[in-house]
């Protein structure tokens, strides 16, 4: 059978084309109505003054964006969010990769280990944060008791009184919840690597590190890029953990908390929209930068 | 085959959209009215059954957290849809809701005699329009653990900030409790309101008539109030964990006997603290007039009310419900079952005369000394201002800002919030 005849057989008939379009129409409608139209409306509205406490909705151009640049609360929230992103992406990627490599080696009971691993990811973020709120509690929290038990501290600590410690602890809660997703993505990528490649490399005298660098890493590049993107996007959108563990405190306020406060507490909707647009663009840009880098540095030509 | 299934599914799709439209028809027939209230406004079944039998109105209740209600009201009103027929209206939202014209004036919905019996109704007036009718009478009193004071050899409750510090030190010195003063210092509204209260205690106001900050100078009441809080924290009279505790969490410390003074105590909480099923110190709870440096025990009122959004579907049902809820017998039942201190002065007096109002004489006396936080009415920029207050206070408590820096930061934020 020639390639041309195969192509002829696979060519859809006119009726099937319409049927195919009809099947994808719902998702096109859902994406357009729930994602693209609201996104465009948000960008558009951020150029107006939408404030229910003041009459009219005049066009203000980039004024909301200009005001954001000088807002000290936004600067605090931006810095905090960048710290969250760096910590979350690094810890989730390294921890997720380590967990995936370990699980990939396990031959018996992997499904049980996997079930245990995904448990934090299955928990609603609010429940997750509440559990950690108890762990970090300065009066009866497990963390204080544990550290006192092993002699690292002599008296209870109020963990959120220190800016840097607070950022780290909130990041850890987020990492604890999101690491399983990274591990699963990378485990799937690892399992797709043919075992023959490692055997051939061993015959050629390659050690474990060289195998990891020359075979594993390039072949999981796609999975790595996906996990890095999702880690970045979720870290940029961090809300529940910071809100539940430390409320609106400037020490740990994230960009999305600032969006919530601007739009829904101060009722300055277009100001909040402008900030959410900037947060989205930043999140996309950061994701794109290292996704492209990972692809460029690890792909096989 | 596939095409047939697809066509059948598409044909059924419009029907699924039609189903919910049948619900309002059934609701209207039964005179159902939707209410959106926080947990302490959510009536028990006994009360809702009685409402139905007395008025023919059936409640469809949505219970949300206090701050989530603001989010729901704001998003619904912006979208032009009703959040419910009756919703919670907190005193702090009055400026925003009034400016946005989101609520129906209720001046004619409630009779004048009833309104005259509810002094806190003035908190909900905007340009002569009554935006909402108060149902929970929140003002602040000093609540203390009489047993702790007795064991420390203290005969009477403190009346000045200095006395409070001295009493707290005496209690701490005798190891009765490690942190005698319960006061929130987290970046939450409860911490900000405690500072507003203490500003009154120190005999001042937050702003003058022109909304110029009055708390920046070191001898101002606001400055001294914040310095007092930070000093009490430094002296170990307030738990260091208070930097992460909300007001309700601080109240738990008092209930467990871990604190001797609930400095910014909710008047309605005297009943909750005195209930053995809810408090471990029930038999030792007492209330006193708020501290003062001027001889007059001023306090602030933070009442909660119910209003009818302009977009409400069943406005008549909502009016019926509100009028029913503020009847004396229902305010009494709401106090007994939900801890909402009645907003009607006559009901407070009746409860006190029947011996059913805990620390009734103090509550009644303090009720006459309630000041609004803003004499001009709650400004539209209040949420932004109060968020700045709680953040700066929290930073000062953590030692990241001095009191001078914190009040300067608040003043700067207030100026920014006021800008058009």
TrEMBL record, chain A:
Which cellular component terms (GO) are annotated to the entry?
plasma membrane
What topology in the membrane does the UniProt record assign? Multi-pass membrane protein
Q: Name one Pfam family in it.
A: BPD_transp_1
| Keywords from the UniProt entry | Cell membrane, Membrane, Transmembrane, Transmembrane helix, Transport
CDD domains, per the entry: TM_PBP2
Residue limits of the ABC transmembrane type-1 domain?
78-290
InterPro entries reported in the protein's UniProt record = ABC_transporter_permease, MetI-like, MetI-like_sf
User: Any idea what this protein is called?
Assistant: ABC transporter, permease protein
Taxonomy, top ranks, is: Bacteria, Pseudomonadati, Pseudomonadota, Gammaproteobacteria, Pseudomonadales
């Amino acid at each position: 059978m020639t390639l041309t005849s195969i192509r002829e057989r696979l060519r859809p008939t006119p009726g099937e084309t319409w049927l195919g379009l009809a099947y994808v129409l719902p998702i096109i409608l859902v994406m357009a109505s729930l994602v693209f139209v609201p996104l465009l409306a948000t960008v558009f509205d951020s150029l107006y003054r939408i404030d229910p406490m003041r009459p009219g909705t005049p066009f203000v151009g980039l004024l909301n964006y200009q005001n954001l640049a000088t807002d000290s609360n936004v600067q605090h929230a931006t810095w905090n969010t960048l710290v969250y992103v760096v910590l979350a992406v690094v810890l989730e990627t390294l921890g997720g990769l380590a967990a995936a490599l370990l699980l990939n080696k396990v031959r018996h009971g992997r499904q049980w280990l996997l079930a245990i691993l995904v448990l934090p990811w299955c928990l609603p973020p609010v429940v997750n944060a509440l559990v950690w709120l108890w762990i970090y509690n300065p009066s009866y929290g497990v963390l204080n008791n544990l550290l006192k038990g092993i002699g690292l501290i002599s008296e209870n600590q109020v963990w959120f009184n220190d800016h840097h410690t607070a950022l780290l602890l909130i990041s850890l809660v987020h990492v604890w919840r999101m690491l399983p997703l990274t591990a699963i993505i990378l485990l799937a990528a690892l399992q797709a690597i043919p075992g023959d490649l490692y055997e051939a490399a061993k015959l050629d005298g390659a050690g474990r590190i060289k195998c990891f660098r020359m075979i594993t890493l390039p072949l999981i590049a796609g999975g790595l890029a996906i996990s890095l993107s999702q880690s970045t996007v979720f870290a940029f959108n961090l809300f529940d953990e910071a809100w539940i563990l430390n409320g609106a405190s400037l020490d740990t306020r994230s960009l999305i908390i600032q969006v919530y406060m601007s739009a829904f507490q101060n009722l300055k909707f277009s100001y909040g929209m402008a900030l959410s647009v900037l947060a989205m663009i930043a999140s996309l840009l950061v994701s794109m930068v290292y996704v492209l880098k990972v692809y460029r540095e690890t792909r096989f030509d | 085959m596939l095409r047939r299934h697809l066509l059948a599914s598409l044909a059924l799709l419009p029907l699924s959209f039609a189903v919910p439209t049948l619900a309002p028809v059934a609701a209207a027939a039964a005179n159902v009215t939707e209410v959106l209230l926080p947990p302490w406004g959510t009536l028990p079944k006994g009360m809702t059954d009685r409402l139905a039998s007395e008025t023919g109105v059936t409640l469809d209740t949505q219970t949300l957290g206090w701050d989530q209600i603001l989010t729901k009201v704001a998003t619904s009103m912006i979208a032009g849809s009703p959040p419910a027929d009756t919703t919670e209206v907190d005193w702090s939202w009055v400026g925003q809701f009034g400016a946005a014209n989101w609520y129906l004036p209720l001046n004619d919905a409630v009779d004048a005699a009833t309104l005259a019996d509810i002094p806190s109704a003035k908190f909900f007036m905007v340009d002569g329009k009554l935006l909402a009718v108060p149902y929970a009478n929140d003002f602040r009193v000093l609540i203390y653990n009489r047993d702790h004071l007795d064991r420390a050899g203290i005969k009477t409750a403190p009346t000045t900030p200095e006395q409070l510090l001295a009493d707290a030190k005496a209690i701490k010195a005798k190891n009765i409790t490690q942190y005698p003063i319960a006061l929130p210092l987290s970046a939450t509204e409860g911490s900000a309101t405690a500072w507003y209260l203490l500003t009154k205690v120190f005999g001042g106001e937050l702003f003058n008539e022109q909304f110029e900050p009055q708390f920046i100078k070191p001898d101002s009441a606001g400055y001294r109030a914040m310095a007092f809080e930070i000093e009490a924290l430094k002296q170990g009279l307030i738990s260091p964990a208070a930097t992460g505790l909300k007001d309700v969490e601080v109240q738990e410390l008092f209930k467990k006997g871990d604190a001797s003074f609930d400095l910014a105590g909710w008047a309605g909480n005297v009943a909750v603290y005195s209930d053995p099923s809810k408090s471990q110190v029930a038999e030792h709870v007492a209330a006193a007039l708020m501290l003062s440096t001027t001889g007059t025990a001023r306090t602030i009122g933070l009442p909660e009310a119910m209003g009818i959004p302009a977009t409400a579907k069943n406005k008549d049902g909502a009016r019926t419900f509100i009028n029913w809820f503020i009847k004396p017998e229902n305010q009494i039942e709401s106090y007994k079952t939900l801890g909402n201190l009645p907003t009607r002065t006559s009901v407070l007096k009746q409860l006190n005369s029947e011996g059913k109002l805990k620390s009734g004489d103090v509550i009644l006396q303090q009720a006459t000394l309630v000041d609004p936080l803003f004499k001009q009415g709650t400004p539209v920029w209040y949420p932004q201002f109060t968020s700045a207050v709680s953040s700066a206070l929290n930073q000062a408590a953590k030692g990241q800002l001095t009191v001078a820096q914190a009040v300067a930061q608040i003043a700067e934020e207030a100026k920014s919030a006021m800008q058009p």
